[in-house]
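Preliminary data (for renewal application), 3-(2-carboxyethyl)benzoic acid complex.
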Amino acid sequence: MSADRLPSQAAQTQAIEVAYVTPAELQARLRAGRSLLCEIQFGGALRDPYAKHPQARVGMAQLNASPLIEAWLSGQPVSYRQAGPIRYACNEEVLFGCVALADIAPAGFEGLVHRCYLDILPLLDAQGYPNLLRMWNYFPGINTVFNDLDRYQCFCRGRFESLKKYYDSQFDQRLPAASAVGSRDGDLVIYFIAAKTPGKHRENPRQMSAYHYPPQYGPRSPSFARSTLKRWDGADYLYISGTASIVGHESLHLNDPQAQLEETLHNIRALIERSAHDDGVAFRGLDSLTHIKVYIRHPEHFEPIKQHLDSLLGASVAALYLHADICRAELLMEIEAIARAP
Ligand code: 3EB
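Predicted structure:
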């Protein structure tokens, strides 16, 4: 159906696409008629602090040579709105939202997360985009311990309580794909894709569902799906959550970045293959990846990781490399990705 559409027509109706681009490349896309759904900058300062579109700055340095913007674009007209601290952009199919909150003192962090999620969820219902597909969560001090829990565990409890309260008996089925990663400084930044129509949340056969992790990882388990499959704009998209060297529920290959990378890729391959098989989508393993974000704890691991990924995936995959803390102290890296078919 979309194959006999002219590319220009398809581009005009495109609901959503992501681009990792320089500011100049972004300007070119906007001049070509694209609209911004949201702009995320890693490190540095906001390009245009008074822009009308949703945007955020994440306090995370980029390891790539030239700094890139994560730009979420639409070929359809977009309207911009705001509800309290949540800024969002809507088109015919998606609502893209973004919140940046000054990260308050340790004792208040869990409550901040809880309130933030309880602001987001009813807004999505009220606006008619009730289906969360993908969420990103960034905050500083993710491995810092406060009152026997680290901030990731505090985050997980705040997120769990709000999602459980809101989704109730549908909790397991409605959790979206997500990333939760530690920044160096700055705000708690949460951004998300919600849609009028649902996606399909898909788990990884090699990993226990994070929402079933045993209590050794924290009093409330991480509330996210391993991936979300969504068909739009004439193609199938698999939004793959942050993925690390975890098999079952255990971290593997401590202190071995190369082995962690290979285990992570094994997990991503398994997710893609599971969806290809169960959903009958024509994914071709890692060849179907279009975008990756690679979070690296120690900058000295960047070169070997990039070399490995370049030789495995080729130059056609857009990549962002970020200096970040991973939620478990023993994890050295994490990769999130998007796969597309055809
Ligand atoms: C894991 O598999 C590694 O808490 O939202 C990856 C992706 C991870 C998302 C989240 C955590 C999250 O448990 C960490």
